[in-house]
């Protein structure tokens, strides 16, 4: 390589760096989206009786249930918008001593564990939120019952931890304001061993089989009910999934699942009874339309593990088939690969030049390049 080749190679490298910087800035501007501003709310007409059997009538008695920001939704990872401004969820006060007792109740619709206000979300939202209660949604022995779905897959069950904005005095005041509520949601799967955290709830269900029955249970680490990784999640603006369906919830749905044993899942879906003394099962609401809402993601979803649903007529009570590995490169990935190839060619030419002129005792400092590793986002299972 001639001496004239070195400036030309360096000039090419400089041009590539400028081009890559411009492309990254453009991609960030296109990929970032602020959370949807919640619409104005309407108060429900009160706490009259409702059931999952009359879901289609909810809107006639609770106007918000017919709104355009309802939950749950089906999350399509290919349609989510990566938002680097979504910070990891951080919790405070979630580890409770056993001497602190908590009320566990069958309210006829689900099992509810009341939580002290010392539990809080301290990071991941623009404001701080205090915990109020957690509850579960499930299906039956014949099929899954999570409320949200991911890529058309419905999980066996789902946990919701309800919080209210600390700028308000209590949840009753907060729930009618656009920024009033924050709910943490996680999917429950069947795994190979018992979950010690869920045992703190499930071992007491036989004591509250009937509607309005309650029992006090010892405190434990509530954070153990959620995934180990709180950094990867989806975020959207939605509603309560039961009447009065107030559209005031900022939802966080974690990408990592939590595992229970098969026996524990069976206890969850078969123990409790509803208001008419029938088995309390399939207590989940049907999916609601997005109506133009964006679903944000705290991570890049260009590579995703998707659970395959069993074929029609298959055994829906078993684990849902093998995992299917799907990938889709975005424009940014292609540009990154192209830049890497061009950079490698330039670097090779530069090294050849240095080697050729080493006998001229010319001291050249070889530039260093940090190695970038792109890690695919996966729907991991949190085995306890």
TrEMBL record:
Q: Which InterPro entries match?
A: CA_dom (IPR001148), CA_dom_sf (IPR036398), Carbonic_anhydrase_a-class (IPR023561), Carbonic_anhydrase_a-class_CS (IPR018338)
Quickly give the catalysed reaction: hydrogencarbonate + H(+) = CO2 + H2O
Mark the transmembrane ranges. Answer: 334-354
Role played: Reversible hydration of carbon dioxide.
Species this chain originates from: Apteryx mantelli (North Island brown kiwi)
Report the residue ranges that make up the Alpha-carbonic anhydrase domain in this protein.
48-299
Provide ranges: composition bias, Basic and acidic residues: 33-44
Name the family. Answer: Belongs to the alpha-carbonic anhydrase family.
Q: Which residues form the signal peptide?
A: 1-28
- Keywords linked to the UniProt accession: Lyase, Membrane, Metal-binding, Signal, Transmembrane, Transmembrane helix, Zinc
Concerning SMART domains, the annotation shows:
Carb_anhydrase (SM01057)
Q: Enumerate the SUPFAM superfamilies for this protein.
A: Carbonic anhydrase (SSF51069)
Region Disordered, residue ranges = 32-53
Q: What is this protein called?
A: Carbonic anhydrase
The protein's matches in Pfam families, at most eight in alphabetical order, are given as:
Carb_anhydrase
What are the names of the required cofactors?
Answer: Zn(2+)
Give a yes or no for keyword ATP-binding in this entry: no
- EC number(s) per entry: 4.2.1.1
């Amino acid at each position: 390589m001639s001496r004239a080749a070195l400036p030309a190679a360096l000039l090419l490298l400089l041009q590539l760096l400028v081009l890559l910087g411009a492309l990254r800035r453009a991609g960030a501007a296109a990929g970032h989206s602020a959370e949807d501003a919640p619409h104005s709310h309407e108060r429900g007409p009160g706490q009259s009786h409702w059931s999952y059997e009359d879901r289609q009538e909810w809107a006639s008695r609770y106007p918000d249930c017919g709104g355009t920001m309802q939950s749950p939704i089906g999350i399509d990872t290919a349609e989510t918008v990566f938002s680097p401004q979504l910070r990891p969820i951080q919790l405070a006060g979630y580890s409770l001593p056993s001497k602190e007792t908590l009320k566990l109740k069958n309210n006829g619709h689900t099992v509810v564990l009341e939580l002290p206000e010392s539990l809080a979300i301290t990071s991941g939202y623009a404001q701080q939120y205090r915990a109020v209660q957690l509850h579960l949604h499930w299906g039956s022995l014949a099929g899954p019952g999570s409320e949200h779905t991911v890529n058309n897959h419905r999980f066996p069950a789902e946990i919701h931890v309800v919080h209210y904005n600390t700028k308000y005095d209590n949840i009753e005041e907060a729930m009618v304001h656009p920024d009033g509520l924050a709910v943490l949601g996680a999917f429950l799967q069947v795994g190979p061993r018992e979950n010690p955290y869920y045992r703190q709830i499930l071992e007491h269900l036989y004591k509250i089989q009937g509607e309005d029955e309650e029992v006090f249970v010892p405190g434990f680490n509530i954070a153990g009910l959620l995934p180990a990784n709180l950094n990867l999640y989806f975020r959207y603006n939605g509603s309560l999934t039961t009447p009065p369906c107030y559209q005031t919830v900022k939802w966080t749905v974690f990408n990592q699942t939590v595992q229970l044993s098969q026996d524990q899942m069976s206890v969850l879906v078969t123990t409790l009874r509803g208001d008419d003394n029938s088995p309390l099962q399939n207590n989940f609401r049907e999916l609601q339309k997005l109506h133009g809402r964006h679903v944000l993601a705290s991570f890049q979803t260009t590579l995703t593990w998707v659970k395959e649903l069993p074929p029609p007529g298959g055994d829906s009570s078993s684990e849902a088939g093998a995992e299917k590995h799907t990938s889709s490169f975005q424009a940014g990935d292609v540009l990154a690969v192209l830049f890497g190839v061009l950079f490698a060619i330039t670097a090779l030419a530069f090294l050849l030049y240095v080697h050729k002129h080493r006998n001229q005792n010319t001291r050249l400092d070889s530039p260093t390049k940090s190695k970038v590793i792109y890690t695919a986002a996966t729907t991991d299972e949190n085995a306890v």
